[in-house]
Every structure is written in structure tokens, then in C-alpha cells.
Specification:
17% strand, two-stranded antiparallel sheet, 87 residues
């Protein structure tokens, strides 16, 4: 039987990130927690977070953007860099 509640460390393992990133998601209101001795997050909340933000860059929880824009920005930045260097 899968656990119903995950600690911050367990959520970080599930999301393949560090606990600091999980605290950032919590503080931004993107991932709800409750406190029972220590912070805990429901399995359903983690699943909903993954569904809701699939296809988005949530590296900065206060500035969530679609991945297409991230790819476009990267390409634009490279074009500018090439122009600036004369290549």
C-alpha cells in the first residue's frame, strides 16, 4: 500500500529535486502541506501538482511559463549572442 502522506524529503525524491525547491513550491502556494509533527503533503496533492504543471517551467514558482517559451527564449538569447560576437 502506497503512503497517503509524504514528508518534504519524500516529495523532493518523487519530484527529483532538493527539499529547498519543495519548500519554495509550498511557499508559493503551488503545493499544499499540513503539519503533523513535521510538514506532510498528500499523495493526491503531489499528483495534482504534476498534472497541473506538466509542460511548464516551474523553476521559479513565482514566474511559471510554458516550456515552449523557455525553448524560444533560449533560442532568442543564442541568436543575440551570435550577433553580439559577430558570428
Amino acid at each position: 500500500m502506497e503512503p497517503m502522506l509524504y514528508t518534504v524529503k519524500e516529495v523532493a525524491q518523487i519530484l527529483k529535486c532538493n527539499p529547498t525547491r519543495v519548500y519554495g513550491l509550498k511557499d508559493a502556494g503551488l503545493l499544499p502541506f499540513l503539519k503533523l509533527g513535521q510538514l506532510k503533503c498528500r499523495r493526491e496533492a503531489v499528483e495534482e501538482f504534476l498534472r497541473k504543471y506538466e509542460g511548464y517551467d516551474v523553476s521559479d514558482p513565482n514566474n511559471i511559463i510554458p516550456l515552449e517559451q523557455v525553448a524560444y527564449r533560449g533560442k532568442t538569447a543564442r541568436v543575440r549572442l551570435l550577433r553580439d560576437t559577430g558570428n
